[in-house]
Write a structure and sequence with these properties.
Elements: H1 12-27, H2 32-39, H3 43-50, H4 58-68, H5 72-76, E1 97-100, E2 104-108, E3 118-125, E4 142-149, E5 151-156, E6 162-165, E7 169-173, E8 178-182, E9 188-195, H6 212-216, H7 225-229
Antiparallel strand pairs: 1-2, 2-3, 3-9, 4-7, 4-9, 5-6, 5-8
Length: about 230
């Protein structure tokens, strides 16, 4: 897996997300307030993302893509994408697109293809405790996780936490809130493949894991302020 520096200032992947967000916003002639209205992400958080002061979670990246009407592949790696039947792509070693969140580092594969039902991600799990998370991931569809190295503990809202060692895998409903925590000596290296059974071939990837219902629901008063805004 590509090494992503996160200890001494923002990583290049971290900065790239902020730069891409700002470029899209200016290209669309939108203010931070207008982007906030479209995405449900607070103005303060948007500003911090653009300045690379914080790294957005995958859920927030999806929300930004949906609000701005941009495919996630186009967001993390601008350029022409294959959009015809019989598509095929390969992601060579060290060519996956990197981005980071506070607890995970990601490498996105198959970013050349848009309108696909699966989102394949390599992940480096740096979190060591559930308390490190401001919010837990939740998105439509199903998720498959396979552990390459290290060990993780999978926490979900409906089941007791369970551990996966190298070579183990799990398949679950990603509509349940869930997080991964590394429990080995070092960071765990895993493969995560998210799948949305609701996205047809004609549906763009920006509708993948659509959180519209979640955004229209009243905020949970038990969640931290950062979670309500982001």
């Amino acid at each position: 897996m590509i090494s992503i520096e996160t200890k001494n200032g923002p990583s290049s992947a971290h900065r790239a997300i902020g730069e891409r967000l700002k470029a899209l916003r200016l290209e669309m002639s939108l203010t931070l307030s207008e982007v906030s209205q479209r995405t449900g992400v607070s103005v303060s958080n948007l500003s911090k993302i653009e300045r690379a002061e914080v790294s957005p979670s995958f859920d927030v990246v999806i929300r930004l893509c949906e609000g701005l009407g941009v495919a996630i592949e186009q967001f993390v790696k601008p350029g022409l994408k294959a959009g015809v039947n019989g598509r095929k792509t390969m992601t060579r070693h060290a060519q996956a697109v990197a981005f980071s969140s506070g607890q995970y580092d990601y490498l996105a594969h198959a970013t050349e293809l848009s309108r696909k039902r699966m989102v394949p991600l390599e992940m480096r799990i740096r979190a060591r405790s559930p308390e490190e998370f401001n919010h837990w991931s939740v998105h439509d569809g199903e998720e498959f996780v396979f552990v390459f190295s290290g060990a993780i503990e999978v926490h979900t809202e409906h089941y007791a936490p369970f551990r996966l060692q190298a070579g183990d895998s799990s398949y679950f409903d990603s509509g349940m809130k869930h997080i991964y925590v590394s429990v080995g000596e070092g960071d765990a290296h895993i493969l995560s493949i998210s799948y949305s059974p609701y996205s047809a071939n004609s549906t763009p990837i920006e509708d993948f894991m659509n959180p519209a219902a979640r955004r229209s629901s009243p905020p949970d008063p038990t969640l931290p302020e950062e979670r309500k805004e982001a």
